[in-house]
């Protein structure tokens, strides 16, 4: 990271702080989903846990991160349409610094959102037996997942022709947790749905976070989760850089 990256990051964070409703908006949908499932559907869903919010929380956190990705695309799209990107390219700035500034902004803003969701979950009865190393592992997985989706969000932000096109990519990601182990055990699903649910990234990540927070033994889930996060991040980074070069040519 260069000094210019941190300057650009500061610019984007100042914009967010002037309009904190961005973070509030990103947090509202996951929190409403958490309230709905815990207090309306939770009594009818058998998960083997004493408090359904404990089972539900990992998936809600991933949903919050996916929701935040739409704003990453929107900020990138806005910079391009307003001519700021072209102006930056005339300055002595390393080109990748512009992209990294947007990704790091997403990382910081999503971290704030996650803290808000955690606080609401605590009020709803969330409790964890995790130790400090388990919490650090959870933070690492969530951070990698955020980086992966942030780089993925850069691509439509660069390529889209309208704001709607830039943000629409996040909709499938927000709802992907519904076809995973985030809300119900995959064993309760029909065979063809279960096959998809058990072999998509959200299930591995949710299972790893859930094990770290409550069980203390993660087995292979943590390696699957890390593989998915790193794999998505590397592939998205490559395509984002290619799209950025195409945008400037």
From TrEMBL:
According to Swiss-Prot or TrEMBL, what is its membrane topology? Answer: Multi-pass membrane protein
A Pfam family annotated for this chain is: ABC2_membrane
**What subcellular locations does the record give?**
Cell membrane; Membrane
Q: Does the keyword Metal-binding apply?
A: no
Q: Which PROSITE patterns match?
A: ABC_TM2
User: Could you tell me which residue ranges the ABC transmembrane type-2 domain spans?
Assistant: 21-247
Q: Highest taxon of the source? A: Bacteria
Q: Where are the transmembrane segments?
A: 21-41, 53-77, 98-126, 132-154, 166-184, 222-241
The alphabetical list of record keywords is: Cell membrane, Membrane, Transmembrane, Transmembrane helix, Transport
The UniProt entry, under InterPro entries, shows: ABC2_TM, ABC2_TM_bact-type, ABC_2_transport, Nod_factor_ABC_transporter
Cellular component GO terms held in the UniProt record: ATP-binding cassette (ABC) transporter complex
Q: Among its keywords, does the record have Transport? A: yes
Q: Name one GO molecular function term.
A: ABC-type transporter activity
For this chain, the family text in UniProt reads: Belongs to the ABC-2 integral membrane protein family.
The record's section on PANTHER family has:
NODULATION PROTEIN J
What is the designated name of this protein? Transport permease protein
């Amino acid at each position: 990271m260069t000094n210019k990256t941190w300057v650009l990051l500061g610019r984007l964070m100042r914009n967010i702080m002037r309009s904190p409703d961005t973070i509030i908006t990103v947090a509202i949908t996951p929190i409403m989903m958490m309230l709905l499932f815990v207090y309306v559907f939770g009594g009818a869903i058998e998960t083997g846990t004493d408090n359904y919010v404990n089972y539900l929380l990992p998936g809600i956190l991933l949903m919050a991160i996916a929701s935040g990705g739409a704003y990453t695309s929107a900020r990138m799209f806005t910079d391009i349409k307003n001519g700021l990107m072209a102006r930056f390219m005339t300055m002595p700035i390393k080109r990748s610094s512009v992209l990294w500034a947007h990704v790091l902004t997403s990382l910081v803003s999503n971290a704030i959102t996650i803290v808000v969701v955690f606080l609401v979950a605590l009020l709803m009865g969330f409790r964890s037996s995790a130790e400090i190393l388990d919490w650090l592992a959870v933070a690492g997985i969530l951070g990698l997942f955020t980086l992966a989706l942030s780089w993925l969000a850069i691509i439509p932000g660069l390529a889209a022709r309208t704001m709607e096109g830039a943000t629409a990519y996040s909709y499938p990601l927000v709802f992907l947790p519904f076809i995973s182990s985030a809300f119900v055990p995959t064993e309760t699903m029909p065979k063809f749905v279960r096959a998809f649910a058990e072999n998509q990234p959200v299930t591995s990540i949710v299972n790893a976070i859930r094990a770290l927070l409550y069980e203390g033994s993660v087995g292979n889930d943590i390696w699957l989760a890390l593989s998915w996060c790193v794999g998505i991040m590397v592939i998205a980074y490559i395509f984002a850089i290619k799209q950025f070069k195409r945008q400037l040519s």
